[in-house]
Amino acid sequence: METVFWRVFASPRTTAVIAVAMAALAMVAAVVPQGEAAITLARYEHSEDVQRLIAWGLTDVVGSPWLKALAVLLLGNVVAVVLTSRWTTDGDEAADAPARAPEDTKIEAPRPEAAVETLRETFRTLLGAPPTAEKVDGSRVTMSFRAGAEAGLAPLWAHLGLVLLVAGAAWASRPPPPSKQAVRAVLDVKDSRTGTVGVFDIVEGETRQFFQWRAQYILRDYAASKDGLGPAVRIERLFPDQRRRDDFWVYQEAPPNFDERHRKGFVSITPRKLGLVPVPGAGLASSGAAVMLLVGLGLLLYGAAAGSQAQGQLWIDVDGRDVRLLGTPTKPGDPLFSQAFQRWDVMARAVLSE
Fold this sequence. Notes:
Blueprint: H1 2-9, H2 12-31, H3 35-42, H4 48-56, H5 65-90, E1 103-108, H6 112-127, E2 133-137, E3 140-147, H7 154-173, E4 181-191, E5 197-203, E6 207-209, E7 216-223, E8 232-238, E9 245-251, H8 258-262, E10 267-278, H9 288-307, E11 312-319, E12 322-329, H10 335-353
Antiparallel strand pairs: 1-12, 2-3, 3-11, 4-5, 4-10, 6-7, 7-8, 8-9, 11-12
């Protein structure tokens, strides 16, 4: 029973299940408003959906016990997979070459005195590791190499990379704290006298003068929902004598020409885009989400590259001038291993003839 449990817990398939579950939670965090943003939206009218999400516990995914439990399971699973892979590798060191192997080739070494050292160093470099076992019997030396040792852990790294990518994307989608945000508005401004329409991109505290009118306009506040007309921004108007100020709200979901009909000012304003943006230095590049995205992408690419490697056992049998290469793939009939063995044969012949 314990053995069965360990095999299941240390399986890359278990890693995949946990990774998918964590990715699903991270996607919820990316789509559903979290933390302070959810609480702020819940205060507005017609926010029954947000209040329902809060009641379900979906607005605090990062702090949920489900995510913490999955993180602990994933950590334990990673350790178990790595240990199992190490034990399997260490326990499979066979120095004696088999009498027959799916891949088999013979080479004649012009310089037998240097054949063993040359082949040992060549394949240590090619396969990224020294021989797993080596046997000397008189003039005969047999070396055993493991090909694609990293490929066994490729699914693990790919799954971890996926988790980090989705979690990083969810983190990046969360707005920074209010102290590190500023209001931004992209506005269509129409001159009431000439009918000319201009597009203005304004950030909080910035002063703009529209067309030839002397009054100046300053973007001040933002509301996620106001007066049943969706997001809105408050704009302050400052007259030339610096003594008169007034302000007004511009609504994202107002009917066409709403500002022109109701306010009847020098200009009428129709918003294209309203919202909050990070202040300089508080964007994605300065957050931990960028690190998670980079590490996740790196692990995903590494897992994909490692998984495309040929996996199996390679024996090099050297007896004087007679050199024999034998190979057995981990998966019978693996075409990647057959192609790799052909490259190893060409490389062995090339280094022995130098």
